[in-house]
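W.,

You were right to be curious about this one. When I first looked at the sequence I had no strong expectations either way, so I just let the prediction run and decided to look at it fresh. Below is the sequence, 317 residues in total, followed by the output.
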Amino acid sequence: MEYLDFELPIKELEDQLDKCQVIGQESDVDVSNTCKQIEKKLEETKKNIYKNLSAWQRVQLSRHPNRPYTMDHVHALCGDTFLELFGDRSFKDDKAMIGGLGKIGGQSFMIVGQQKGYNTKTRQYRNFGMANPEGYRKALRLMKMAEKFGIPVITLVDTPGAYPGLEAEERGQGEAIARNILEMIRLKVPIITVIVGEGASGGALGIGVGDKVYMLENTWYSVISPESCSSILWRSWEYKEQAAEALKLTSFDMKKQKLIDDIIPEPLGGAHYDRETTFKSVEKYILKGYNELKDLSTAELVAQRMDKYSKMGEFKE
């Protein structure tokens, strides 16, 4: 297990507990009471740390190297029913954007999402989860295919942003994202979106338009990352914690501002501490959302979605 800087007190107590247990196993000394005291202190420390996380600490948790990525969720939710589909039928297949058909709870879904890598080699292969225009065009192709056959769509968002390279701009990055937003708003099948990690800028919004939008507890969703915001406003990354607070990017901030529909709770310590519980929670919310949408007519579905997004940003003095 890798530990973040604010998790170091937990690491120290877990190391003490391991040493205590080793002493008990390798000698005749009764250390059961000592171990129980350390376990109690460890539990209290975890609760104190994770129940009082700052916005920046939640950003750190959303990027934790042990956190389950999109394909982890897909395989856990769909098992061996998932069939991956490739290519945008125009340029090439984008490895940062995955998509395909799968069954969850006996119901078929078209699943689209950004995928990051686990090590240096796979991070380069997946372009760090930053999709090119062909990735968004692949996503749109699969969503239009789902619409043709009446299959609901699930999008899993986890990206530091769309790829900002020159070649991406030359192939129409902005147009591809804008086209996806336009088409998703009027797609004639239910769309359920889950932010499973980072939700940064237009890269997230390019597959983030949904009838139901959920965020895992320790994720973030914002127009810009805290580091980029800090570098623009203060000409330095040193103010990223202050920027994170100001951006109101956590799941709780998003829910309060009515920009998402609900928060999916995570196990104490984050999704990576208990993956199975996290996967079950995500499945529960997906099926709950689908059951609330499946009986709506196409006209009602589209009208409700358009109304939802047109109301965002309204305020009264």
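Here's what jumped out at me. The chain is about 50% helix and 15% strand. And, maybe more interesting for your project: Residues 8-26 form the longest helix (19 residues).

Coffee later to discuss?

I.
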